[in-house]
Amino acid sequence: xxxxxxxxxxxxxHMAELTVRAMEKALRALFERNEQLAIEVIEKDQVVxxxxxxVDRLILKLxxxxxxxxxxxxxxxxxx
Length: 80
What we know:
- The chain is an all-alpha fold and 80 residues long.
- It has 3 helices and no strands.
């Protein structure tokens, strides 16, 4: 259970990092009117979408099989 909870935390952090980088690139593409950079941001958005699906599956697995309590439950529900 704790390993899967750590996997969830790591995946959420990875998604956040990718999203921050994407936002920085998107703003740069907008201000510089760089179409190629904008296309790159759009293409890499698929990675974040796949990670979101992975997070959803892991959350369902944790809720169904581990029956988390207290702090762990609040964290998992907050990730939804």
